[in-house]
Amino acid sequence: MPRAKQICLVSGCTSVTVRSGRCEEHAPPARKSWDRPSARNRSRPGDWSSRRAKVLTRDRFTCQKCGTRENLQVDHLIPVSRGGSWDLDNLWTLCGRCHALKTYYEDRGR
User: Which stretches of the chain are DSSP H helices?
Assistant: First the structure.
């Protein structure tokens, strides 16, 4: 069953709502977050997927800390936020658990 039309939440406006309880005139602009890369990924190179594959192959699809072969992620030895680069020699393979622990201890050291 369709919903009944409602009037705008803005005081004194009697127009019908279109989005977020407001009429077209008072509705906030639509956000397009997918058009903007996140701050941490702005510097990510366009060939990231091929670099990631090279690092995984170089490290033999094994976590470089504990040796597991499950839930693998590519991490920066020196984070980009601390002056690290996206070069292959600054990347290594870690499992999700080791990566989380490394990130935790890095954040505590700030």
Answer: 48-58, 96-108
Is residue 68 situated within a structural domain? yes
Q: What angle do CA 46, 49, 53 make, to 5 degrees?
A: 140
> CB neighbours of 107 closer than 8 A, spacing ≥ 6?
none
Q: What is the pLDDT of residues 1-22, one digit of tens each?
A: 777 888 888 888 888 888 678 8
**12 burial level (CB within 10 Å; 0-12, 13-18, 19+):** exposed
- What is the spatial distance between Cα 69 and Cα 65, in angstroms, rounded to a whole number? 11
Q: What is the mean pLDDT of residues 32-39?
A: 62
Answer whether residue 27 is part of any domain: yes
Residue 39 lies in a domain: no
Is 42 exposed, middle or buried (CB count within 10 Å of its CB: 0-12, 13-18, 19+)? exposed
In this model, does residue 37 exceed pLDDT 80? no
